């Protein structure tokens, strides 16, 4: 009797989970908009870092953080898909606008990274995270991305540009990272 109760409980939980995540309509508009804004932010950062590396080579922290940006976009895509939303491709990759945004020196690119990480943290704190309240899966991924920005990416950019760095940084790609010019 006990195994059948566990099986029944598992089916009820699985059924309610799949029904809950079947439609984009289960999320308020503000939460859907927050997911799309976060994904656009990840795509923008990935495209900028790719443009920086096109100009300066595979230099840290850009070479480490771009991998994190791709992982973050994938995580957002999974949450979006669970709610019936389409993630879409990164249309900024390889764009002339991204190439034109790259400054003349690597130190300047790192300084842009610092500014972007500060702005990114504020975007998450003031706009994106408040819009996700009541949706634990959305809040969890947005919180992780916000924390990676502040705790991993910001210090890496500060090291590479703010303290006599040569663009090689000291970030070794550990953990999740996030940057936004």
TrEMBL record:
Segment forming the signal sequence: 1-21
Keywords for the protein's UniProt record, in alphabetical order: Signal
Region (Disordered) residue spans: 162-181
Protein name: DUF2202 domain-containing protein
InterPro entries cross-referenced by the UniProt entry: DUF2202, Ferritin-like, Ferritin-like_SF
Native source organism of the sequence: Rhizobium rhizophilum
């Amino acid at each position: 009797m006990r195994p059948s109760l566990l099986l029944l409980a598992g089916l009820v939980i699985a059924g309610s989970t799949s029904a809950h995540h079947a439609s984009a309509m289960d999320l308020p508009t503000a939460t859907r908009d927050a997911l799309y804004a976060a994904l656009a932010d990840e795509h923008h950062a990935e495209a900028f870092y790719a443009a920086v590396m096109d100009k300066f080579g595979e230099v840290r922290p850009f070479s480490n953080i771009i991998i994190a940006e791709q992982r973050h976009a994938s995580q957002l895509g999974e949450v979006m898909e669970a709610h019936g939303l389409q993630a879409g491709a990164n249309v900024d990759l390889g764009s002339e606008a991204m190439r034109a945004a790259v400054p003349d020196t690597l130190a300047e690119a790192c300084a842009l990274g610092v500014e972007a990480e500060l702005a990114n943290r504020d975007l998450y704190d003031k706009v994106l995270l408040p819009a996700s309240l009541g949706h634990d899966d959305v809040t969890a991924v947005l919180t992780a991305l916000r924390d990676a920005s502040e705790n991993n990416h910001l210090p890496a950019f500060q090291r590479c540009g703010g303290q006599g760095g040569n663009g090689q940084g000291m970030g070794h790609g550990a953990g999740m990272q996030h940057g936004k010019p």
